[in-house]
Specification:
Length: about 550
């Protein structure tokens, strides 16, 4: 089967799932989890565990509470509800809600342990106590919890649920800026064994994807990514997660297809459970916009923005929604180069008509949407010749960086520092100070390379390596620019602006074979709009160089 046929098959499968996955048809995968609870409570309990595996936390809590109602003495039903308040990969935890859920069994750990008979159930309750009640910060508890899960996995090596929660606990100890791949590799090896023995296990497929969610390891996660949406089509996050691998491989049409299905499912869940908007729905919507922009489908990206705008207008007071709107609009302006005169005051209190996008509620950014909006205001000002406004934006970004540093969030400060230098570089270039622009862009790169490769659409929204390549090209240094664009493409594979930059640099450097390959990649990009500027430029070059 050809790659094109495989992609078409994947798209048809997702469309079918969008039609088939209705609220009461809970296709969430297949697991085995024997417990001491009443038989009548098992279906709800298993639904809760499978929802946990797919990070459908609200639905998991609802299912576990149904199990509690059916069997009030079912200790693991309360354990499951407590676990729904822990979001390990985002370092988030509603500790008080989790403790209250556990206290419904009994007020102390000792009393809770007296209520269960099976050693495995006792061990799970003890591990939950470590996660929610031990001293120290979230990372300290996550690390201690992972150690406890390691002990359980050693004791019950063939238990799929213990193994899956162990794999997740390892991933839950990873923080932005961490180096090395040991924990991710161990988590992947544990999850892969479960997946091999049960190809319908939602947690195994899910955590394989998370373990390999970087440009170097993403090819190893592609089989699980292809399978996961079909394992749990009733879970919006399961429909979205394959796009983590697709983004890392530059498979833009698959990113779009995945998030069309995920967005619809997320909206359906919001309506069914009466959940607040701006969480999984915005997460998938922002990825959908990014995929459309990479394909040159600006009209589709505008429609994505309009949905975000409508959501914000329904609830303008909620900061996550405002942030989501700001970031999405900023990305649209950047990728389309449709520069606007943006008041810097709108970064603090935007009007609903002039500020779009921000971070998608589930995967919150390390800086807020107003910072991204200040960045795009500065870049737009530079491109429109308003040097004073551009320099003011850079100054404000510097102030935001200092505030982040003073608050002890050094990693977040790095992202703001990159934007600060990028705006300053754009301002210098607009003034004709090309070498000064190159120097500032290189300084942004030096910071970027101390950070992890992005897990999804780039943050900050303009990759520093890509900007550096563009500055070198503007400074008539095409050979150097080629190397930088190639490095950028290793960090953000097949990103359309980097491919275009590489092709242009190669033409200027007289490296026609490299130019042809880059333009060929653009011209043959699956799903790309035929009349997009990048495709037209690529086809024109390829035809002229035959």
């Amino acid at each position: 089967m050809t790659g094109r046929a495989i992609r078409a098959g994947f798209a048809l499968t997702l469309v079918a799932m969008m039609s088939a996955a209705r609220p009461h048809t809970q296709e969430l995968g297949r697991i085995t989890f024997p417990t001491s609870g009443a038989a009548a409570a098992q279906d709800a309990f298993l639904e809760g565990v499978k929802s946990l595996h797919s990070f459908q936390f609200d639905e998991a809590a609802e299912a576990f509470r149904r199990a509690q109602t059916t069997d009030p003495s079912f200790a693991l039903a309360y354990w499951g509800e407590a676990m729904s308040y822990n979001h390990p990969l985002w370092a988030q935890q509603d500790t008080e809600a989790a403790k209250k859920a556990l206290e419904k069994i009994a007020p102390t750990l000792e009393a809770r342990l007296d209520r269960v008979r099976l050693p495995k159930e006792k061990a799970l309750l003890e591990a939950a106590d470590v996660l929610f009640s031990w001293p120290g910060d979230k990372l300290a508890r996550d690390t201690a919890y992972a150690d406890r899960m390691a002990e359980m996995h050693a004791k019950w090596p063939d238990d799929h649920e213990i193994a899956t929660f162990y794999a997740l606990s390892l991933l839950g100890t990873v923080r932005p800026g961490d180096t090395g791949f040991r924990r991710q590799a161990l988590a992947a090896s544990v999850a892969q064994k479960v997946y091999q023995e049960n190809p319908k296990h939602p947690g195994a497929a899910h955590f394989i994807i998370h373990a390999f969610d970087d440009p170097d390891h993403a090819p190893l996660g592609l089989p699980a990514a292809r399978a996961y949406a079909g394992i749990a089509p009733a879970a919006a996050h399961a429909l979205h997660m394959p796009s983590h691998i697709f983004v890392q491989l530059g498979m833009w049409q698959d990113v779009v297809t995945s998030n069309v299905a995920a967005y619809k499912a997320a909206v359906d869940v919001n309506a069914r459970l009466k959940l607040a908007e701006g969480r999984e729905d915005f997460h998938t919507l922002s990825w959908l916009e990014y995929g459309n922009l990479m394909l040159g489908k600006t009209d589709d990206a505008k429609q994505n923005l309009e949905l975000a705008k409508q959501t914000m207008e329904r609830d303008p007071s909620r900061q996550p929604i405002r942030n989501g709107y700001l970031g999405m609009r900023a990305r649209y302006i950047l990728e389309t180069a449709e520069w606007e005169k943006i008041s810097l005051d709108s970064a603090s209190s935007p009007r609903s008509g002039d500020a779009h996008g921000a971070m998608p509620g589930m995967a919150m950014s390390s800086y807020d949407g107003s910072t991204t909006w200040t960045f795009i205001a500065g870049v737009s000002a530079a491109m429109m010749g308003d040097h004073a406004a551009s320099e003011t934006a850079a100054t404000r970004l510097g102030e935001a960086r200092q505030k982040s540093e003073a608050g002890g969030n050094a990693y977040a400060a790095k992202a703001v520092a990159i934007m600060e230098k990028e705006v300053a570089a754009a301002s210098r270039l607009a003034k004709g100070e090309k070498e000064a622009a190159v120097k500032l862009a290189k300084e942004a790169v030096d910071i970027e390379l101390t950070m992890n490769a992005p897990s999804g659409p780039p943050e900050p929204i303009k990759p520093a390596l890509e900007l550096y390549g563009e500055m070198l090209l503007a400074a008539e240094r095409p050979a150097e620019a080629m190397g930088v664009f190639e490095q950028s493409l290793r960090r953000t594979p097949k990103r359309t602006p980097s491919l275009l930059g590489l092709a242009r640099a190669a033409v200027k450097a007289g490296k026609i074979a490299t130019a042809r390959q880059a333009y060929q990649d653009l011209a043959s990009m699956a799903g790309a709009r035929a009349q997009s500027p990048a495709v037209i430029e690529a086809q024109k070059f390829l035809k002229s160089s035959e």
